[in-house]
Each structure stands twice: as structure tokens, then as C-alpha cells.
Write a structure and sequence with these properties.
The structure is a homodimer.
Chain A: H1 3-9, H2 12-21, H3 24-32, H4 36-45, H5 48-55, H6 63-69, H7 72-81, H8 84-92, H9 96-104, H10 108-118, H11 125-128, E1 134-136, H12 142-152, E2 161-165, E3 172-177, H13 178-182, H14 190-193, H15 208-217, E4 222-227, E5 230-236, H16 237-255, H17 270-297, H18 299-304, H19 312-335, H20 344-376, H21 385-416, H22 426-449
Parallel strand pairs in A: 1-2
Antiparallel strand pairs in A: 2-3, 4-5
Helix pairs in contact in A: 8-10, 15-16, 17-22, 19-20, 19-21, 19-22, 20-21, 21-22
Domain CBS (chains A, B): 195-250
Protein name (chains A, B): Magnesium transporter MgtE
Membrane topology (chains A, B): Multi-pass membrane protein
């Protein structure tokens, strides 16, 4: 739906009406569908207040590109009027020269608070916090605080969470909700209405996922970011929602066996996408080449018993599937903080019997298939068909157990050596299990079939 | 950390102190770690108000089980005092007899609103809405509305979103934030301060994921659930956060190739877990059996050219990996509403060239490996080694292209026939691609090698 392009063939009044009346989220959606040049032109002409609102939406695509297309003067004013966390987001994606130029045209106080946000690495609480929160000293009354909120309301991202700060030390003392404020006696002192305990807070370097976990656990609308007892900013629930959706997309892409895309699928350039996929695909391919080496190693057995090759795809995929299940379970439980690094042995003790039971299930089905085909005359597995059935059954128990166990331990191992456990992907596990799976299969075959067909 | 169990060996005063002073979220976490019997006993003795708060946390495990362990009288009072959406959640998990008994002991108005929530299927906006919201007629003043909020504040889940409802028709007219209320002139009429347009609302049957999408898009703290222009309840951002985390867990488990677990990994019973995993594992195993049939079909070729078997695992896994990438991309883009059913051909037109390019990449690596091993004398692929290299290369292009294309189309196909596109899992795609992959490999081999080793 290219609403602006169609309006342009009409007239400027239509565009003005859309910009004036539509919900800002809908304008952003419409802008995202327009060519970049047209979007930049529209933003250069739109009323200033409206443009601020539009740039304040994290859903606006290419915000940095669009803001650099504007005259430097207007760009600087927009950044100063935007919420601090969004302005930092936009600045972060600019090239360094443009970023510094814009920063140095700003009032010193604003520059300082933007630089403090930009100083934290992406994905940390500090990098998504906003410095525009409401703080009051403990000796104010409820009435005075309400008056103050009325004055500053327009420049604060949220007024629903209010922080009590010691005016001398700047230490964060307490936190309470606007709800509490409007139901309290107007003459009461702030120090008497806030809860008795220090508020839940997070350090600036805490991972956003962990911040989301705390916000959810304590049902907060915002959480203060605190260092040396001083409040640096707050992270609001809507920023967490946005970040969580991004993190989930990253995890889903990585579990699918690729680098996470940082743009929508249909908007991503063809060759950047090939890059994100091709790297992992080639790495997995190179590792999987070990299967060819394993097969070469067992070449003599293969030539003697060609019937063994028939079940290779079936057996290998079962190991990969059980591994993929175990990995997805453990990655997710880790993301939800149900499991920590220290729980690895508990998980191992659970996956070992699970793997055996699931392996026996598949083993029985596999043997059943061989017996059935043999009896029905659909295929002749030769005089030792019952030994072949046994080989397939026993190998499946071994491989599914190995798959479950290694699939569940892989995220722990990655975490232990400092990687994100979510880097463990279904294809990664499958590759890990394939090589070992072949070795297990041929070893079982050698044990059961030696002296007959091997 | 079994805080209560350890406290019990101490004395009752310690438990009373924990219950009185700790944050309710921490108490819930501690209770979740205790044996069920002990948790039920503690909840039977805890102060009533505190118990209500505890049951109001969606993080409390086995809430239904715990409430049925309480005397019926106390259970009924607790449910009446809890927020309506949580009470409905707890009732939903009870067996029918207990549910009806508790419902009929309640005041009729409450019973009616709980039944209206229980009437919507799980995962819909109606099923997670709360009926405890603030609504006022348009002819009230700001001051009167604030007074009203002060009175009802304790019985409303949120007072940050306020709804303007026509007192005669019960139609939802407008919505505004508490923020707006406290910054407006106390004598102004509500009808003059609320925005000019009807609020964003959702129908009761809308999927929760879609509700989350709207809340995020319009940066809302709550969204009203509306039917026939009448407001039935509201869905708050924290309920959406909880539901989104659940949905993400479900999607992650399903993408891993299993039924979603509805309990934390370490708490799930061993055999229920085997059930959730074994079903899909067996279904995939049965489908994967087709690979054995394909292999049997090409038995003659296999016997003539045993060298072909060496590359089967390598080639098959490449198809599965590229398919898994494409599926995770499309599932995620669908969840984020970047792609709809009508976009299938756009995706196909993108995946076809992607698959070819990625296939050529892997094909070149694969051929390189054969040439290298042959030259270095690591393995002798026979006099026709260059034709074998060509077979592997060409087959990889075909299989990776087929993998990318079918992996990306699978979620569309599932959606088209009414399933959740997220039911497409990495193992599902791998299985789909394995059978076709083998057929492609042997067909390419027949074309290239016929007259030489075949």
C-alpha cells in the first residue's frame, strides 16, 4: 500500500491530511513502504512536531539514513527533540563524521547524556535506557510532585514510574507509581508514601534479555539503571518488548543455522543475505565432509554389505532430530533462566534415560519395518536379515541417545566457553551427530555382523 | 534454593517474616521450588491479602492444583479477590466439577464476567483479557474522574488507561491515559480531553500474537477488547509480555521438532516429555523410511558404484541445512507480519536464485575436496574421478536449491491448509528434503556417469 506515492499523483493537501490526522504508527508503516527518496522529502516538509513523533518510533526503517538526508540544522533540532534513547539509536547507526558533527551542534547537557548512552555496548541495559525520567527529592509533598509532573510531562518518556533521588548524593532511594501518587494525601511527604525497600534496579551492562526477565518477574512499567547507587536512566517496558522481539528473531535465525538478519527478509539485500547464510552453510558443509572420510574408512565393510547403506540416511537423520529437540529445549530453558550453567549434570541425567527410551521406540519401529518388508516380500535383505534388523535397532538406540545427550550439552558447552548458548543450531547439532552416528552404526554392524556378511 | 523448607527446620516466625517482607515475585519463585504439599500448607496459613497477591502472579506454578488443595471457602474468596484474568486462568485448569462448584459459590456479577472470559478459546484476546478496567461516561469532569479512580484503584488491574463509555449504549467511545488526566484542567469535561478518534481495539477472537503486534505498533499500555462496539475487557501489556514469552517457547520447541512443552523443562514429568518428543520423532522416522525405499530403488547403481555412497550424508545434510535456514526466515517473518500468505511467490522468486548461488558455493567446495583428495593421493575415486566430482557438484546445486525453495514454501503451505506456519520444523524440512535429495543425486549420477561406471 503506497499511500504517499498515490497521494502525490493527487495533490499536496492529501498528504498534509494524512500527516495531520493518521496515527503516527500508521504513518510510519506507510513511509516504510515508500522509496527512500520520497520518504526523505516528505519528512523534510512535514510539520516539525509530527516529524519528531515519527522519528521516535523504533519501527521506522532506515531512520539514520533519512535523518542524514535532512538539512543538518533540522536534523540537529529533531535529535534534540526526540526521546534520548531513540536519538542514541539513530546516532549509533550514522557514520562517525556525521555523528560527531550532529553531537557537537547540541546543547552540552544533551550531548553528555547521549554520549553516556552511546558508550554502552548494544544489547546492554545502558544502550536502550532513556535519560528522560521523573525524579524528585524525598522531602517534596505529593501535591508538589504532581505539579512538577504536570510541568515536565511532555519531555519525559514515562511519568508512570517516579524515582526518589537524594538531592545531595544523587543516590536512588525509592520508586513508586503514578497510581500511588494520585491516591495519596496531597500533603503527605514523598518519603512516607514510597515503599520501604530499595527498588529493583539493574546495572548498565546487564543483558537486555535479563532486564526483560526482571521487568516481567516484578511486573514493572520501567526499571532504573543504576551504577554506584546513582540512577543513570530507566528502561521502559515498551523498549523491552521491542528488544525481546528482535532477540527472538535473532535466536530463531540462528537456530535455523545462519547469522541473524538485521533487516526484514524482503528488504535485505540479496548478497548480504547470501553472506549471512553462505558462511554457516559452508562451515557446516566443511564439517560434514568428515562423514565422507568416515565412509571411506568403512569402505571395505560397505562393499561387503551394500545392504547397510540403505539405512544410513534413516539412522543419521534420527540422531539429528533427537539432538535438535534436546537443543531447542535447553536453549529455551536457558533463555527463560530455568537452567543455568551449573545445571548441566541435571540435564545430562535427564537426557540420558530420555534418549534411551526414545531410541528404543525408534529402534523397534525400524526393526519392525525390516521384518515386515522381509515377510511381505517387498525386499530381500538376504539370509541374515534378522541380524541386519538387530544392527539397525541397536544402532538407533545408541545414536538417539548420543543425539539427545550431545544436543542438550552443546548449549552448555558454548556458554562455558563464552559463546551465546543460542548459537547452537539444529544444523550444527545434526552435523555433530552425523559423524558420530555413522561411526556408531558401523561399530554396531561390525560387532553384530562379523563372521556373517562382514 | 528451598527457602521455606530450610525455614521450617527453624521456626514459624522466619516464614512469617519472609511472607510479610519479601517481594511477591521472590515469594513465588521460592514457592515454586518447594514440594507441592508444603507450598499448599504455606498458602493455607499465609495472610489473606498476601495469598491473593501470590495467586495473582502468572509465574506461580500449579496454581490450580494449589487452590484446589485449599478449603473450598478460602479458595472461593481468593478467586473473587484475584484479578479476573488470573482467576479465569486458574479456573480453566481445574477439572470441571471443581470449576463449577467454585463458580456457583461466587456473586453473580463476578461469575458472569469469569464465564465470559472462560468462553473464549485459549490464545485469543478474550481469554487473557481482564474485566477490571476503568471506564467513565463522557460528561464527567477530569476532577470527578480522578476521584473515581482514587476510589476504585485497588480493584482495577491498571488505571493508566481510561476508557470513555456511552452510559446508555455501553459503546466504547474514546480512550486516554492517566498522564493526560493529571495534566488537564480539573474542570474540563472528559469528552473534550480525549483524542478525537476512536481508540485502537481488538475483537475477542483475535490471536494474542496479533494483539501483541498492535500493542507494540501503537505503544499502548493496554488495548480494549470490543464486540459490537461494546467493550468486554482490556488486555494489558504485561499479559501480552507473558503470552509472547510462552508463544516464543512454543515456537522454539516446535521448530526443534517436537510438541511444545507447557511446563518448565526440569519440572515436566519424564513420560509426558517422552510423549511430546516421541510422537514427532516417530512420525519423522516413519517419513524418513522413504529414504530406505529410495536407496533400495537405486540398489543396482549403488552396487556398481559404491563410491557414490560416500557422499550421501554430505549431500543430504546440505539440503536439510539450507531448508532449515529458509524455513526459520519465513516463519519468523510471518510471526512479525512482514509476510502474508499472498507473498509466497515473492519469497519463491527470492529463494530460487538464493538457492542456486548457495548451491554453487557448496558445489565448488565439494568438487574441490574430491580434486584435492585425488591429487594428494588421500583417496582414489577411480579413473572417472572427474565425473564423480561433477556429479557431486551438480547434485549439490540441485539439492540446495530444492532445499531453499521447499523450506521457504513449507510454512506458506501449512498456513494455506489451516495449520500454524510455525509447525514447520527443522527436522520436518530435513525429512522432506532428504528423500527428494537422494532422488536428485541418483538422477544426476545416472545422467553424468551412465556409460562409465553406471
Amino acid at each position: 500500500m503506497n499511500r504517499f506515492s498515490s497521494a502525490i499523483s493527487g495533490n499536496a493537501a492529501v498528504i498534509a491530511r494524512i500527516l495531520a490526522n493518521d496515527h503516527v504508527a500508521d504513518i510510519v508503516e506507510a513511509l516504510n513502504n515508500e522509496p527512500r527518496k520520497l520518504a526523505a522529502d516528505l519528512l523534510a516538509q512535514a510539520p516539525f512536531e509530527r516529524t519528531v513523533e515519527i522519528f521516535d518510533q523504533p519501527e521506522l526503517d532506515d531512520a539514520s539514513e533519512l535523518i542524514s538526508a535532512l538539512p543538518r540544522n533540522r536534523a540537529g533540532k529533531l535529535l534534540a527533540a526526540m526521546s534520548a534513547d531513540r536519538a542514541a539509536d539513530v546516532l549509533r547507526d550514522l557514520d562517525e563524521a556525521a555523528r560527531l558533527e550532529l553531537l557537537h551542534a547540541m546543547p552540552p547537557a544533551l550531548r553528555h547524556s547521549l554520549l553516556s548512552i552511546l558508550g554502552y555496548e548494544e544489547g546492554s541495559a545502558g544502550s536502550i535506557m532513556t535519560t528522560e525520567y521523573v525524579s524528585v527529592p524525598p522531602d517534596w509533598t505529593v501535591a508538589r510532585t504532581l505539579d512538577y509532573i504536570r510541568q515536565v510531562e511532555r519531555t519525559r518518556e514515562t511519568v508512570y514510574a517516579i524515582y526518589v533521588v537524594d538531592p545531595d548524593t544523587q543516590h536512588l532511594l525509592r520508586a513508586f507509581g503514578l497510581r500511588k501518587l494520585i491516591t495519596s494525601n496531597p500533603q503527605a511527604l514523598i518519603s512516607t508514601i514510597a515503599a520501604d525497600t530499595a527498588p529493583v534496579s539493574v546495572p548498565p551492562l546487564m543483558d537486555v534479555e535479563q532486564v526483560a526477565h526482571l521487568i516481567r518477574k516484578y511486573d514493572l512499567l520501567a526499571v532504573p539503571v543504576v551504577e554506584d547507587d546513582k540512577i543513570l536512566g530507566i528502561v521502559t517496558v515498551d523498549d523491552v518488548l521491542d528488544t525481546m522481539i528482535e532477540e527472538n528473531t535473532e535466536d530463531a535465525h540462528r537456530f535455523g543455522g545462519m547469522e541473524a538478519l538485521d533487516e526484514p527478509y524482503m528488504k535485505m539485500g540479496f548478497f548480504s543475505m547470501i553472506g549471512k547464510r553462505g558462511g554457516w552453510l559452508s562451515a557446516l558443509f566443511l564439517s560434514e565432509m568428515l562423514t565422507a572420510s568416515v565412509m571411506q574408512h568403512y569402505e571395505v565393510e560397505l562393499e561387503k554389505a551394500i545392504v547397510l547403506t540403505l539405512f544410513i540416511p534413516l539412522i543419521m537423520s534420527s540422531g539429528g532430530n533427537s539432538g535438535s529437540q534436546a537443543t531447542s529445549l535447553v536453549i529455551r530453558a536457558m533463555a527463560l533462566r530455568e537452567l543455568s550453567l551449573a545445571d548441566w549434570w541435571r540435564v545430562a541425567l535427564r537426557e540420558l534415560p530420555s534418549g534411551v527410551v526414545l531410541g528404543v521406540m525408534l529402534g523397534l519401529i525400524g526393526m519392525g519395518r525390516i521384518v515386515l518388508w522381509q515377510y511381505l516380500g517387498l525386499y530381500d535383505y538376504g539370509p541374515y536379515w534378522h541380524l541386519i534388523a538387530a544392527t539397525v535397532g541397536v544402532a538407533l538406540v545408541g545414536i538417539v541417545t548420543f543425539g539427545s545427550l550431545s544436543g542438550s550439552m552443546l548449549p552448555f558447552a558454548l556458554k562455558r566457553i563464552g559463546f551465546d548458548p543460542a548459537s547452537a543450531s539444529a544444523p550444527f547439532v545434526a552435523t555433530l551427530v552425523d559423524v558420530t552416528g555413522l561411526a556408531i552404526y558401523f561399530t554396531v554392524a561390525a560387532l553384530i555382523l562379523s563372521g556373517t556378511i562382514l
